[in-house]
Give the backbone structure.
Amino acid sequence: MKYFSTNLNTEPVNFKEALFKGLASDGGLFMPENIPYLSKEFFKEKMTYSELATEMIYPFIGEEIDKLSLNEICKSAFNFSVPVVNIHSNLSVLELFHGPTLAFKDFAARFMARLMQYFMQNKNEERTIIVATSGDTGSAVANGFYKLAGINVIILYPSGRVSKIQEQQLTTLGENIKAVEIEGSFDDCQKIVKKAFLDYEIKEKINLSSANSINIARLLPQTVYYAWAWKYLECPKDVIISVPSGNFGNLTGGLFAKRMGLPITKLLASVNSNDIFPNYLNNGFFQSKESVSTLSNAMDVGNPSNFARIQSLYCSEINEIRKDIISTSVSDKLTIKSLLEIKQKYNYLADPHTAVGLYGIKKNILKSQMGVVLSTAHHGKFADIIEPIINKKIKLPKQLREALKLPKDSMKIKNKYNDFKSILLDY
Ligand SMILES: *Cc1c(COP(=O)(O)O)cnc(C)c1O
């Protein structure tokens, strides 16, 4: 399979190159030249999660990997449960937070890490992955790459601007994972990362790769659980899936699955007050804005980067996009209302991101439809936000309790590119 750039200003590349490059050289996002088609009968077959993942991902990579190796990668990456929890008769939650860092980003990060390692085999090659994070991505990437031979990871995060739990998850692993704390904002971290990729001296000396969310390898595993939920629900005829969305990577995974033949009626992009996408569907103009801070902070995105992929998938035909996607913006006030209502009515404790998704479905579902909400994080990750809302202490899952006990190990530096560069060169 070849991958082209959404900016169409550079030659298509093979999968491996798209994986290690992340971003195309013209600044566009990589897209597969075609979306493989699997029959409805295929989606009805009984399979384990890793079998399903192998069958759905393999055609995107093609001859660059053998199927057995891909299956091994899937087995080891997706070694946790992916339950569908029934909330009431026509509403279910697909829990995507049972991986090691308790957010759905584990699917993508664990898969990408193993795939990179596969393509690096027998070469004695060393690679350094750098990633800027505002919270969840960093810990998923750190965990995904933890102890993988030949790969070093450097995570940049804004000092004092990630939650205590998130910071502990980032800074306590050791081994091949290094955390660098920048005296600046998330945007400053991202600027430093971008500068490093353009630095000639670094390019000469270090094999750099990025693990940011626009990598196509992070998208592919996000197609699989849509089919998993559909199977689990015994192939419903009319199903709407609500996706708590920020950068729209998760939603784009769902669009790929639909294009592959999975019979989903509609995808619902549930967003917080960062309402660029619903505005676009309403009035036809995509107007990016500065992001605003909300309770569902992993979705505070003012310029969703996967929009370029959605445009490409639908040849920019907004009416075709409207047939497949609807979108709702949910304020913090309604997020709290939704969280409390689901807790009181159904005794289900959602995190703020999932609460946005639940409100979205409540507003949009038709009586005859089956609704599924993707739950993107465990509520324990956002205990500091939820406890005052429900007025009760939350018992943290074991992973989080353990991360809180370990000593923090990070290097704090000024917001200066050269300080970071010397760390990189000495690593
Ligand atoms: C990253 C994240 C999202 C948003 O996912 P996108 O693919 O960026 O739309 C939603 N919820 C949580 C908990 C996240 O970490």
Q: What stands out?
A: The domain at 82-102+218-394 is CATH 3.40.50.1100 (Rossmann fold). The first strand starts at residue 2 and ends at 5.
